[in-house]
Amino acid sequence: MYETVQFIHSYWAYLVLTVLIIASINAIVGYVSNKEYGATNFRIALFTLIASHIQLLIGIVLYFVSPYFRAFSEVGMGGVMKDSVLRLYNVEHPLIMIIAVVLITMGYSKHKGKLTSKPKFKLLAIFYTIALVLMLSRIPWNAWF
Question: Where are the transmembrane segments (predicted)?
Fold first, then answer.
């Protein structure tokens, strides 16, 4: 089961990163160029929200079926924090990704309350770009390539 969930989580991450990059660029370009916020912009933001939440759910399942999770009972929290690989997979990656998904959710929710295009794009640009930077900072790159 672990291998299957890990496979899905790894490849869904490509989709999440792609749509998050597209959504961030779309929001920045929309804000800078004073574009009108339309249905396409809404769909891009919504699809990014949905894809990131699905990735979070897959990640939560993976977290608890992962062999890295057993390290908490084997070496304890102190041992996990001393080992950089265990710390990345058990603490840093999950925590930062949860924060990133929360930022995506906040940006999406806040932008819906704005009535004009410029503030909508601004909120999406800020929240989605910060989430993107956070995600890029804690991806286990050695496992991807």
Answer: 12-32, 44-66, 86-109, 121-141
